User: What shape does this take?
Amino acid sequence: MVEGQKRYVPYVAPEEKVPELTWKGIILGAILSVVMTMANAYMALKVGMTVAACFASAVIAMGVLRIFRGTILEENLARTAASAGESLVAGVAFTLPAMIYLGLWENFNIIVTTVVAILGGTIGVFFVVLFRMMIVNDMSLPYPEAYATAEVVKAGQKGGKGGMLVLLSGLFGAAIKSLQAIFYIIPEGVSGMVSVGKSSIEALKIRMHEGFLYWETPVTGPAYFGVGYIIGPTLSSLMFAGAVLAYFAVYPLSIYLYPDLADVGGFARNYYYMRQIGAGAMITAACYTIFNLRGVILGGIKKAFEGLSSGLRTPSVSMRTEADIPFGLDMALIILVAIPLGIFYYFQMNMVVGSIVALVLMVILAFVFAIVSAHIVSLVGSSNNPVSGMAILTVVITALFMVVVGLRGEPGSEMAKAGLSAAILVGTTVCAAAAIGGDVTQDLKIGHVLGGTPWKMEIAEIVGVIIAAPVIGFTFNVLLEQAKMAGEGIGGPSLPAPQSGVMAVLAEGIVTATAAWPLLLVGIIIGIAIILLKVPSPMLVAIGMYLGVGTTFAVFLGGIARWITERIWTRRGLNEEQRGNADRTGTLIATGMIAGEAITGIASAFLIVSGVISPSPPSWSPWNWSATQQLPITLVVFAVIMFVLTYFTARKKAYE
Assistant: This one.
């Protein structure tokens, strides 16, 4: 069959009978889904980003199932279930923590979190099934990450050591995080203020105010370096540029004009103010992203309706590699998911009209954004899927509709709480559907190349969603309790959750009309300026403004490590195939470091909450030393992490 310029020849022929939907594949997929969910839940709250699990999960599944004589289709099924957890986290973590920001919850409601995640995730799968044949079978679409992963899986049938790389780098990340968060030997980071002397500005009637410069080292976390390595030097530089603008320009200016901000409490206030400015910049960046994708959005919607009409008139197929969940059953499942969601919204809002409006909005927006997400993934891959932009738009639209139906009022009023809850919960459902929509499309394309059975992969995706959903709320609560014991919470330096902060600001501003509009306006104007400068990714600059120096500095150094290795590859004259091998090696090492730190970070939080270890470092700990005493330790840690990222990705074994 020829479509476009490519010939579709699956790795496993449609007539071949190869074990696929088996217990060992499902169990491994469930385990990997839990691991990837926990790791990405940690990263989402810490740095506002998740790491695509598709490639790493494929490599791990190959390594594990090779021991049990698993087939390539069993490996594909396990990877499908695993990647569902990673994507579902993005959908929930970018929106639901806003419930904590807004004071609607004290802790994450495990039941509500699980219900929203499962129903949002599964409806995303069912929507994609409606137009799978239209978008997945289109051989003219590039699907960059899907084809790359499929090639790795096919090459892995001849053997490989990728799984061992992930394991060893994971142990390295876990060791660094253990020394930092469990044994309190490695400081998390060092910061301070440097006086630049006193001066006066007569025109502003400022007499002898003292100026300060804020400085901060990168966070000593391998995960952040790993994120920087994966996104590369350009994007990591943009992210750090946002922090430089906010903390090395806006912050010193604020301190000079308002000297009280130089104390600890003042820093906390200024941190909040800069968050508002960063939120404004993120709003602008999200709108710009959606505007730039208007053609893709319309094209995706067109494909979806073509696929929907095709499904209504096309009889069931007999070929294994084209068999989806039956069209009629899929439509019934969509209805079965929508009904409990409507009931769920009613109990959360206690208003019939409001719950009906919320349900209608959810169905329409989830359908549209699942389509948009799927189409974007087909063009640029899931790593570049702007789910947070779709979530921001959803929250704004829902909040406006809630105001129209009367769910508005003063802060703290029951009507305002109902309106805010509706905006965030609908946003979370839609965001989960959009994230899963992109993920399942990419997974189905990988299966399309390998010769997988679509309906079996769709079941694996649903299993991954169901397994991951309760893990998200549990992980969030453990991290939140640890932050509370340190006197912080969601939105603090340890758990900034940037996208959710923006959702909270927007929803509250619309429903209660109490947003800090002057600060948001400053951020919006900065965002416009960033766009006019033709910055490649305005959203990353805005996130950097929101997050601060320590985190983004570490991400930036990870990008520098990638830049160094790429220069080494060029100097050695690596060909395209060798560069691809080296790039995959580096990605596996970085992914392992991220997973290792994330799982250890969650474990340390659980130990602290359980009372096994102290929430504060002992008196002898380097954490209690002066900044000048801590600095040598942190520099050694940075050097070790940079060495691991550069040496093991540049040596000959990395690209052979």
In short: The chain has a mean pLDDT of 81. The longest strand covers residues 191-201. The longest helix spans residues 414-450. The radius of gyration is 25 Å.
